[in-house]
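User: Fold this, then the next.

Assistant: Folding the first:
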Amino acid sequence: MSGPASLARLVSLPSPLTALIGREEEIDSITGLLRSRDVRLVTLTGAGGVGKTRLAVAAAQELRSDFSDGLCFVALAPLADPELVTATIARAAGLRETDDRPLVDDLAVFLGEKLLLLVLDNFEQVSAAAVQVAELLAVCPQLKALVTSRERLRVRGEREVPIRPLVLPQRHPRPSLEMLTQYEAVQLFVERAREVHPGFTVDNANAPAVAEICHRLDGLPLAIELAAARIAVLSPEMLLARLGQRLPLLTGGARDLPSRHQTMRGTIAWSYDLLAEEERILFRRLAVFAGGFTLEAAEAVCGAVIGADLTVLDGLASLAGKSLLERSPGDGNPRFVMLETIREFGWEALSTSGEAIAVRNAHAAWCLALVEEAEPAMWGAGQIGWLDRLDREKDNLRAALHWTLSQGEIETATRLVALLWRFWERKGYLSEGRSQLASILGRPPGSTSRSVRNSALTGAGVLAALQGDYDQAIRLSGDALAEWNQLGDRQGIARTLLSLASVARYRDDYDGAETLGQESLAAFRAIADRWGIGHALTHLGMVAWVQGNHALGTTYYEEALENLRAVGDESGIFEVVLELGKGACDEGDLARATTLFEECLELSATMNDGAGRGAALTELGVLARLQGEYARATDLLMQAADLAEEHGDRRQVAYLAAHLGDVEVAIGNIGSAAARYAEALGLFLPMGNQVGIAQCLEAIARCAMNRGHVSLAVRLFGSAASLFSAIGAAPPPDREPTTGAATLESSLSPAAFAQAWEAGQALNLEEAAAEAFALAADLAVERLPEPPPAVDSPDSFGLTRREREVLALVAAGKTDPEIAELLLVGRRTAESHVSSILAKLGVETRAAAAALAVRHGLA
C-alpha cells in the first residue's frame, strides 16, 4: 500500500456556481439522518433532473463540521463497470493502488477509524457494486456514505430519502403574485431566467404563463433550468406555447454540466438505456396511459407478461424503484404515475417501436370495458365510488376518445360517450361532455346501434339543460324521445320524459313540469324502476314546493326517499334531504333546516362524498348568512369552496364565490362583494353557464347601484335581463334585473334611463362581461373614508376572532400555506382571511399589517 499513514482532513466537494433554491426540509432530513449514530448509509433517490446531486452537495456542506476527517465526493457517472467503483473511491480519497494486496483491503485500512463522509454520485449504472460499499462501511465503523441514485442500493442499513420535484403552485385558483413567487419552482425559474435576461421579473401579466410552465415541466429542476434559459429570446407566454412538445425545447444546458444533463432527453435516455430490454418494452407501453394507472390496467393494456422473464407486476416495481414511475395511493389499489416529461420520452419510444397502434387500441378497449362495468352503478348503489374511480381515469378516457375518433372508430367512440354522459353530468364536466357528444352526434352513425346513439342524444339533451341552453335541450331530448318511442324502449322514454320535465322546471313552466313529471313517474312505475320513481317524485316535490304546496311536496319527498333507499341510491337520498332542508329554510323553520343540512353532512361522510359535504356546507353557510352570523357564513362557505376546488368542481366554486359576495353585501363590503361576483363571472364564462353569467351581471349591477354608479348599473341590469330572457329562465323575484333597474329610474332622466337600458340590452355576452369586470375592478379599489378607531382594540378594526388569529400569524411571519396548516383550514380560506384583514386594516402589504398589529397590540 502506498499513501500517508494517516488521512489528512479531506474536502473534495464540487463548488456550485449558483445558489440552491429552497429544499430546506430535504436538507434537514438528510443531515438529521447522517448525524444519527445509527445511520451509516443514506441514499437519495429520484427521477433524472430532480436535483439529487445538487442536494447531496448542499447537505454535505452542512455537515462539514460533523466529520473531522472530511468529505469525499466520488463521481461515478463515467463508470460502466461496477468492478471499478472501489478504485474510483480510492483515487478520490487520495489512495494510490499497489500490487501488495486487494485494493478493497488497502482502502479499508486507509480509512480505518476515520470519521469521513463519502458522497457517491450517480450510483445507478454501477448498482452491482452496492455490496462493495456495504462491506467497506462494515469494516470502517465511523465511515458514512451519502449516495445519489435513481434506485435504492438494497443493502442492509440503507435509509432512503426520495427526492420529489419542487412544490408547484395550485392551478385553480391561481395564487396572488406575492404567493406565487414563494413557490420554489417559480423561484428557480426566475433566478435562472435572470442569468440570461437580468431584467426579467414576474408580474401580473406573465405570472399565469410562468406558473403553467413550471406545471408542464413537472417541477423538475433541470427541466425548469433548461426552459428558463430560453427567456433570453422568448417571453414566458411564447415559451409556454412551445411546450406542447417539451423535449425538443429543453436543450442547451450549461457546458460545464455532464453531457447527459445538457438536454432533458439525454437525462431520461440515461435511465432508459440502463433498463433491460423487457423493462424498456413495458416502459414505453405504459406511456399510453394519461394521468396514471393501476396494476390491473397495466396488465390489461400491456399484457400480463412482457417477454419471457418479466411480469407486469415485477416490471412496475422495477420501474418505480428506478424513479421512472411514482406510486401514489388509490382507492385501496396502488396507482402509478409517470411524470409528463418522462412520459413524453416514453411516447416517442412507443411511436418508433411499431407497437403504437396495437397499444392504443388495447388502451381504448380497456377504457370501454371500464365504463361498461361502471354504467349500471351510475343509477343506483355504488354510484359515488364509481364516479370517483372514473374521475381518476378521466385523462385516460379523454385519450381513448381522441384516439378512436382520430381512427374513425365511430362505434367505439359512440359507445364511450353514451356511457360517459352520466359521469359528465354528475361530476360537472358539462362543457367537455357537450363538446364530446356533439363531435359524435355530428358524424354519420356508421354501424352504431340506434339505442347506443340515442343514449348519447339523451345525454346531450341533459347536459344542454344543465348549462341553461334550454331550446337546444328541448330539441335534443325531443328527438331522443321520438327515437325511444320508435324503439319501444320504455326506460329510455321514462328517463327522457324526466329530462324534459326538468327543463320545464328550470324555465319556470310549472304546469309543463308537473305534466311531464307525472308522465315520467307513470312510465317508471310501469317498469318498476324504483330509481326512476324516486327521481321523478323528487322532481315533483320541487315543483310542488316552488308553487307553495309544501304539504304535497313533503309527501312526494317522503315517497321518493322510500324508493331511493330501496335501491341504495345514496346521492339521490342526499339530494332529497337537502331539498327538505331548503324547504324548511323557505318556511322560516331555520332550526329544522339546520338539522336536515347537518344530516346531509353525516350522509356525505358515510358516502365519503366530498362534493356532497361541500353542498351541505354551502347550505349551512347560506343559512348562517340569513341568521346574521356572517363570520360563520364566510367560514362555512370557504370550507365548501376548498372542497369544490379539491374536487375540480369549478361550477360549484363559481356559485360559492357568488354566495360569498352575498355575505360581503350583507356586511356592507360592496367592493369585496363586486370582486367576488367578478370571480364567479370569470369561472362561469368558459363553462358557458348562461344562468350563472346572468346572475353575476345582475349582482355586479346591484353593487354599482349601491355605490351610486347609476348609468353603469342600468346598463348591466339591461344586459342581465336580456340574457335571462334569451335563455328562458326567470330569476327569483327579489333578484329580477328589471326590479333593480326600476329603483334607479328616478335617478336619471327618462331619456337617459332608456338609453342606458337599451345600450345594455344591445351588448353581446363578451361586451357585457368586459363592462362587468371593469366595473367590479373599480368598485373593489374604491375606499370610503373611515374615521380613525376611537380605541386601539381589535374590535375597532372590525376583525373577527378568526381574523385576529390569522393576523397574529401574519405578524409572526407565517405564509398562507403555513397559516392554513396551523389553523386546519384550506389554503384558499387562509388567503381569503388575509385579503379581508388587509382590506379592513386599510393596508396593502402583509408587512404593513404586521406593523399595525404590533403597534395596536393585536399580535
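Now the next one, as you asked:
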Amino acid sequence: MPDVVVQCPAGVFRGQNAIAGDPRGGVEVWKGIRYALAPTGARRWRAPEPAPAQDADAIAFGPAAPQAPSPTIQLGDGTRIDEDCLSLNIWRPARRGGEALPVMVWVHGGAYALGSSAQPLYDGSRLAAEQGVVIVSINYRLGALGFVEMSAYSTPEQPFDSNIGLRDVLLALRWVQANIAAFGGDPARVTVAGESAGAGIVTTLLATPAASGLFARAIAESSPVSSVYGIPRATGVAERLLAHLGLRPDAAASARDAPVESIIAATSALFAEIPASAPGTLAFAPAVDGDLVPEAPVNALRAGRGLPVPLLIGTNRDEASLFHFMRSPLMPVTDAEIMRMFTQLHAERPELALPSVEQVLTAYRGLPPKRRGLAVARDIAFRLPTLWAAEGHAQVADTWLYRFDLATPALTLMGIGATHGAELPYVWGNLGTRHTNPALRLGGRRAAESASARLRARWGSFIRGEAPDATGLPGAAAWPTYRAAGPSLVIDRRDRLADDLDAALRRAWGDATIAFS
C-alpha cells in the first residue's frame, strides 16, 4: 500500500518505503509518474504535452515504450509495452535530514530503440541511500516513434515535430525543475546522466540551447557522440518507414493511424536495414534539425560550444565485442564493412580532410584481423567521438575522462571482456549473484564489489558537485580533470592514471571529425 505522500505542482503522489540493503537506511520510491499526455493519435510524432495535475498512487513502473523483445534487454517482470509510456520514477534516501539533495536524472540506453526505466539494472535504491542523492529515471519514445524524422512531411493541417525522443527528455527535465524540490531534491544541482543511446542524448543536450538551465552537470557513459544525423539522411529513414507501412510520402499523415504493432515491426526492420546498407550508421538517432539541435553535437563539443557544465565522460575497453557476440548489425567489424564505411564517408563529405583507411589502421598494427575490426568499430563509434568531445569541452568546463577495463573471468573466457554496458552494474551497485549475473559465474566477486564501491563513490561525488575522487577506498587513484593529451582514469581491479592514453588514435585520425550529414 502507498505510505509516502508528496504534494507538488504536478499533483499528489503516493509512493512506498523500500529497503536499500545499505546500513544507512532505506529509500522512498515513487514509480510510474506521468509527466506527459499519452503521445497517441494526433499526438504521435508531435512534441510532448505536459500532463495535468494528478492525484495518483505511484507504486508501479509505467509501460515501456513500444519495442520488439531483445535478448540483451531485460525490461523487468510484468513490464507492459504501450505507446502511452511517458513516465518517470524517483528514489530518495529515507534518512535525508532537511537539506535539499543533489539529483541524478537517468536516461536509459538501447540504440534509441530498446530499453526502459523499469529495467532491474537501474534500481536506484542503493545509489540513492548510499550516496545521499535523489535518483530520477525516465521513459521516452523509442525507435520509429521517437527517432524517425517525420518533420519533412509536416503541413499546417498535419504537423510533425522534429527530435521527438529528445523533446520527451527535455520535458522530463523541465518536470524535474518544477517538482523535484517537493521530493527533497535540489533543482539547482541536477546531473543528467545516461549510457549508450542515453549518453548520446546527454551529449546532444550539451549542444542543445533549449537545455540550458535544466541541468548543472552531465555524465555520458559510452556515448555515440557523432551518431547524430542531418535532415537529408534522417528523412531517408522516414521514407523507408512509410514504405514499410505501405504509405506514399504524400500520405504520411496516415501513419498516425497505423497500428502500433506495425510501427514495432517497421522499427525492427529498419534497425537491421540501415546499418547493413550504410555501415556505422544507426537507423534511429537525434537529428540536426537546425532548430532544436542547431549543429552536429560532435562539432559543437569539439569546438568548445557546448553548455558549460562539468562533464564526466568515458568508454569501455571492449565496446564492440558484445555487438559482435550478439551478431548485431550495428557495428562494422569486417575489413570489407570498414572499407565500405570509409568509402561512403569520403563520398558523402568530400570537403572534409578525412584520413585514409590505411592511415587509420596504423593505430592497430599487430592486431589480427578479427581484433582489428572490433578495435576500429569501438573507436569510430565510441572512443574517438568521446575523445573529441572531452578535448573540446575541457576548454569550457571541468571534464573527467575514463576508460573502463575491468572484466570478470567469465566475460574474459567468453571473449567479451569489458564490453559495452559492462560498467552499469558497478555504477548502480546492482551486481546480483553468480546465479543471476552470468558475468560472475566463474568468480570475480571480490574485485567486482571493490570496483563498484569506487565507481559509486566517484559518480556520487560528481553528482554532489565535487571532484569524482575515491582515494579513500582500496584500489582507487586520484582523478584530475582532463586536458588534450592529458590523463585518463583507467578503471580496473586497481585504478590507474594513464597520460595520453589515446595517443595512437589521435595520431591516426589527425584533425578529422566525423559529423554525418
